[in-house]
Amino acid sequence: MITFLFWNLKSQPLRERLARLAVAHSVDVLVVAECDMQSAAVSRALSEATGSAYRVVPGSGNALRVFTRTPLANWRPLFTDTLEAWLGFRFRVPNGPELLVFAVHMWSKLRTTEPDRMQDAKELAEDVRQLEAQEGHSRTLVVGDFNVNPFEVPLVWSSGLHAVPDRRAAEREARTIHAREYALMYNPTWGVMGDRTPGPSGTYYRAASESANYFWNTYDQVLMRPALAGHLTELRVLDSDGTETLLTASGIPDAANGSDHLPLLFRFDW
Amino acid sequence: MTATIPNLWPDDIKVDVLPPLVILRAQASKIHQLTKGALLGDVTSTEGSDGFVTHRLDLIAPALDNRRARILSVTHREGFYPVVIEAECYRPKARSVAEMMHLGTLFDTKVGTTWPDATNWRPAAAGQSEFVKCVGEVLKSKEVRAVIDSLLALSNEKNQPAEEPAA
What we know:
The structure holds 2 protein chains of 2 kinds.
Chain A: E1 2-8, H1 15-25, E2 29-33, H2 39-50, E3 55-56, E4 65-68, E5 75-80, E6 86-92, E7 98-105, H3 114-135, E8 140-145, H4 153-156, E9 163-164, H5 167-170, E10 174-177, E11 180-183, E12 185-186, E13 204-206, E14 215-217, E15 220-224, H6 226-229, E16 232-237, E17 264-268
Parallel strand pairs in A: 1-2, 7-8, 9-12
Antiparallel strand pairs in A: 1-17, 2-4, 3-4, 5-6, 6-7, 8-15, 10-11, 13-14, 16-17
Chain B: H1 20-34, E1 40-47, E2 53-61, E3 67-76, E4 83-86, H2 97-100, E5 124-125, H3 128-139, H4 142-159
Antiparallel strand pairs in B: 1-2, 2-3, 3-4, 4-5
């Protein structure tokens, strides 16, 4: 089994909370966005709390970073975007298969227009396809803060990430539109949206004044190719670091004492 | 007597103007020569909505399992120019979301706005000479130099023969 956690830290010094999360959920790989802390300080906090040696994965960026307790020899950096909006890694799961892992934070693109977001999704999708061709497999997962919800066009658009909410639909592997084939992704994050789920209603709360307001948004997501879908055993939005709540008394992310995003936890088993 | 009508056109108009993609491809091939094959350049293109095309210039380190670092993205419409350049050296050094909120958009085509947005941090080259100047700025920037030297150092480290065991 391998356990991943993604969290947008909103530039807050949250290493103690990260460490508690690592302990509470036995996290093997932490992907963090907007990380302003020194990598050594984060690794130390994680290692001291868990008793396992965590290190930053080479190829991590300035603000988008990957920490792991798996051997660094299992990781190989494969791609860095100009503005660090996404990073690509080869990762051999201990006693498991080799994966292609993309860490994403569309952080440079905040408050952009729909064409911006569509172009970002299209460019990311092309980079994913390019690395899949290079690596010769499609055991690919894409995790991070996309700054759009799972149901918005950049995520579901065939030329974008083409990520659908149903595993069986994704297992078609591709759709042909106007004689061109578009590979599908499975986006299980649809399953953690709204208040009929066990956890919080999303990962990011915003009471906007616009006429269309979702209040809860699920910007933090994990997408995967169908080859991985059957191995996903758990996906949760976390509302606690294992010791303390991450929410305010009114049940929204406690940005004053943490991040305005909630962490996303997911596990695979082989 | 006939009055002499002056030439009001700029003096630097050239007829051998090239599309941005051709200029980028030429730079991509040059890095191979400059690094004696240690690094390759690759240009990929994506077509967006409203006729936008984006070209991305990547450096590839063959010795590092083809590790790829994107150093430049340029976007234009079907007329090639103006072209907007996105690179780390031009990005405002903001780290917080609050600061990033002011960075603006690349493709804002709402009614009443122009493209490219004059207030955007990404420079817009009106023609070839400005584009060549910008690409040169990016390729000579300390940010790109750090990427080149990092990829070369890592490649050299990997290619170094293993030390012989002491006798």
